[in-house]
């Protein structure tokens, strides 16, 4: 089970990295459209919004669900206070 979790974490990590990189590329597409201007800029923005952004949204949704499944398989808990850590002086 540990090997499966390690592989799933790697797939999740690389997948999210690619989706974030692709999302960053949309910024450069809009900047290029801003610099070009005119009808070409409108075509670049329309293509980016209608063709590229939905793929990024679907991929990120699937990867997030995959990441949650991986956390479940690993037995990890997120956003849960950890009472095993020592408390600071003011919290005793």
Commentary on this structure:
The protein has 92 residues and is an all-alpha fold. 78% of the residues lie in helices and 0% in strands. The protein has 2 helices and no strands. The chain has helices at 2-36, 38-74. Helix 1 runs antiparallel to helix 2. The longest helix has 37 residues, at 38-74. It is elongated.
At a glance:
The chain is an all-alpha fold and 92 residues long.
The biggest sheet amounts to: none
Give the uncertain stretches in residue-range form.
none
- What's the total count of β strands? 0
**What percent strand?**
under 5%
| Fraction of residues in helix | over 70%
Helix run count: 2
From the spread of the alpha carbons, the general shape counts as elongated
Report the end-to-end length measured between terminal Cα atoms: 39 Å
Order of helices and strands: HH
Structural class per helix/strand content? mainly alpha
Radius of gyration, whole Å: 20 Å
Average residue-wise pLDDT: 86
Name the descriptors.
elongated, mainly alpha, about 90 residues
Q: What does the secondary structure layout of this molecule look like, with pairings?
A:
Elements: H1 2-36, H2 38-74
Helix pairs in contact: 1-2
